């Protein structure tokens, strides 16, 4: 990889790294925020939801705008808003600790900014890089996302050990320089100009082409979207519940919680990088990687929910201690690291360049909705029969998605002898998405 290209990749990779801090950095700090702001467990979980829900709802609009105005024209203001929203949240904690609505409103502003970051970085990478190189770059972006998840618990714990609301100010310190680097250091693909006013966006043309994408790939995209939602729901649900357990049951401080929770997220990031690199050489393994990942994720949920609790598991329950809980989270982290690179390829390869922004944005929406739903869901099902029901539902969903990703996605995108037709902006406005197992076309990678 040339030095200039490596610089572009490094700047793009900084976007998912900064974005993922939005919730991950606060997970080990949640018990401290609960005590300082006098919140219930369910109210505390809304600190994560207030960020994720607006982000998920904003992503489709940001994706559609990026298809018309260009990726950078949307990403740079979004990163600025993300950083300023975080600073406002810190100010709300300091100035109005008895008014949690101010914190939640600031987090919502930050979430709106987050909606124009990671998915557009994926789309911009898809615009700039081609075929096998694109697979590697997308794997690097997911690895940066995983690295952010890996170090963010420790970052949040250390920052909160200095001042309990200081993690919120970290967002601005990191996001604003990244916004400047995107504006000045990443090229604008030639397709952006066409996307902004070219033939592909004549009246009615854009909507017709998107409808064609979902008509051809609606079923597989639904599986990929559902898989992304469940993955993030389980991940953030388990992490937020584990943070609460480490504080309440084992009386660990912020830095200790952050260090322990960095282990599963580090494993997830490493796995995502290796899988992304492996899919560059053997793209036909993507459905199998997703299926194996969901199998591991399904197994991790009951193990994590029952860790440290009395019950039929005997020594594997309460006697397991925090090591059992972290081990269960590591199993889930390995599963997530297998799933996400395969899903990223599936979604970015489902549309041509001029529609990729909105298609990937919808994928980001369901991921954020999963992150928004997971913490309150796992907080509400913290004990009793509800915990068993949640464990059973998670196992059933994980195994169903393991089958769906292994069969449905492979059947839809793994057909040998496929071909790429005219591009979205080409003659007839048609997009052919039957992709071959080998030698992927330059515009749409094998998925």
Strand content: under 5%
- Give the beta-strand count: 0
N-to-C span: 23 Å
> How many separate structural domains?
1
CATH architecture label name: Up-down Bundle
Could you name the ranges where pLDDT drops below 50 across 5 or more consecutive residues?
A: 191-203, 313-319, 414-447
Tell me the overall shape: globular
Highlighted features:
disordered C terminus, Growth Hormone, Chain: A, 447 residues, mainly alpha, 0% strand
Q: How does the SSE layout of this entry go?
A:
Layout (H helix, E strand, L loop, with lengths): L2 H22 L5 H8 L3 H29 L1 H25 L4 H15 L3 H11 L2 H32 L4 H19 L4 H8 L7 H44 L5 H28 L4 H21 L14 H28 L4 H28 L3 H30 L34
Please give a quick description of this structure.
The chain has 447 residues and is mainly alpha-helical. It has 15 helices and no strands.
Molecular structure report:
By secondary structure, the chain is mainly α. It has one domain (3-429): Growth Hormone, Chain: A (Up-down Bundle), CATH 1.20.1250.20. It has 15 helices and no strands. The longest helix is centred in the middle third of the chain and has 44 residues, at 205-248. It starts with a helix and ends in a 34-residue tail after the last helix. Mean pLDDT is 81; it is low at 191-203, 313-319 and 414-447.
